[in-house]
């Protein structure tokens, strides 16, 4: 879907450790996390069921045993390249996420549960392609924050936004903008952020990605209207330091729904 496409930047600002004044909801505390974000490109038919079963029966239980989580598992509702699933895996150690598949290969319980997916043949593949990103959380939002409805498997949707920037300097300025008042405006509009992350490794760098949770599309649209009309946003976005055309070159905006096994 091409509504309000927003998001992408890169790892340069991650190293800066910028602090924030406030955020859309009370920001979590603690050390900054790393995220493995994966997109599973699928073909309509058996692949979608096979991959969803792999998430619920093998992968997410194995990740939980490794101390990783909460794990988010989502399908694209609006956006390009459907059908596709997204997986969000938070962790405290970058090395663990970078070597995840090697670690999973040593988990016999995982391999047994994952076998229909893990051992799929070229004649009947489990997926078309997998694309991965490694990210580091923003200093001002250091940990994944699931919405309260995740605990009860309540109705919820998500918006995944990526901002690409024309240079690492421009990317750093966009990240600084979040920490210079944009988090406060998110809070005033009632947003429920799930995560904010700088891309350390991935395509289309420099970029940043963040996720917001909503009850439904009506709430999403109402809160974005509140955000756009906030006098503080108009003032911040008019600041010459944060001129939009200079710091954001492309935006990707996806609407996602949680799969049944999602912990977010």
Keywords for this entry:
264 residues; alpha+beta; Alpha-Beta Plaits; eight-stranded antiparallel beta barrel; 8 helices; globular; disordered N terminus
Number of helices: 8
Radius of gyration equals 18 Å
Whole-number count of domains: 1
| Low-confidence parts | 1-24
Biggest β-sheet description: 8 strands, antiparallel, barrel
Just name the CATH architecture.
2-Layer Sandwich
Shape: globular
Helix-strand sequence: EHEEHHHEEHEEHHHE
Helix content: 25-40%
Written description of the protein model:
The two termini are 22 Å apart. Helices cover 33% and strands 25% of the residues. The protein has helices at residues 46-65, 94-98, 100-104, 108-118, 168-189, 217-229, 231-237, 244-247, and strands spanning 34-41, 72-78, 84-91, 129-137, 157-164, 192-201, 207-214, 250-258. The longest helix has 22 residues, at 168-189. The chain has an 8-stranded antiparallel barrel with strand order 1-3-2-8-5-7-6-4. The protein has 264 residues and is of the alpha+beta class. The protein has a single domain (11-258), classed as Alpha-Beta Plaits, CATH 3.30.70.100. The protein is built from 8 helices and 8 strands; from the N terminus they run βαββαααββαββαααβ.
Present the secondary structure layout.
Blueprint: E1 34-41, H1 46-65, E2 72-78, E3 84-91, H2 94-98, H3 100-104, H4 108-118, E4 129-137, E5 157-164, H5 168-189, E6 192-201, E7 207-214, H6 217-229, H7 231-237, H8 244-247, E8 250-258
Antiparallel strand pairs: 1-3, 1-4, 2-3, 2-8, 4-6, 5-7, 5-8, 6-7
């Amino acid at each position: 879907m091409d509504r309000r496409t927003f998001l992408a930047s890169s790892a340069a600002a991650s190293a800066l450790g910028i602090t924030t004044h406030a955020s859309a909801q009370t920001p979590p505390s603690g050390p900054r996390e790393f995220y493995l974000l994966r997109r599973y490109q699928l073909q309509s038919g058996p692949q979608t069921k096979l991959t969803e079963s792999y998430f619920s029966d093998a992968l997410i239980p194995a990740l939980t045993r490794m101390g990783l989580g909460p794990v988010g598992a989502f399908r694209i509702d609006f956006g390009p390249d459907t059908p596709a699933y997204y997986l969000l895996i938070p962790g405290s150690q970058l090395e663990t996420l970078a070597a995840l598949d090697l670690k999973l290969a040593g988990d016999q319980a995982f391999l047994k549960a994952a076998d229909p997916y893990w051992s799929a043949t070229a004649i009947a593949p489990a997926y078309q392609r997998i694309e991965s990103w490694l990210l580091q959380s923003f200093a001002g939002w250091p940990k994944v924050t699931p919405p309260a409805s995740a605990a009860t498997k309540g109705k919820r949707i998500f918006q995944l936004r990526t901002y690409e920037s024309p240079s690492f300097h421009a990317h750093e300025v966009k990240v600084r903008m979040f920490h210079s008042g944009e988090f406060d405006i998110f809070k005033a509009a009632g947003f429920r952020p799930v995560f904010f992350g700088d891309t350390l490794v991935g395509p289309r760098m420099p970029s940043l990605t963040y996720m917001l949770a909503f009850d439904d599309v009506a709430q999403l649209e109402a809160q974005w209207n509140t955000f756009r009309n906030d006098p503080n946003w108009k003032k911040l976005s008019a600041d010459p330091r944060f001129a939009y055309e200079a710091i954001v070159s492309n935006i990707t905006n996806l609407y996602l729904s949680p799969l049944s096994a999602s912990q977010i």
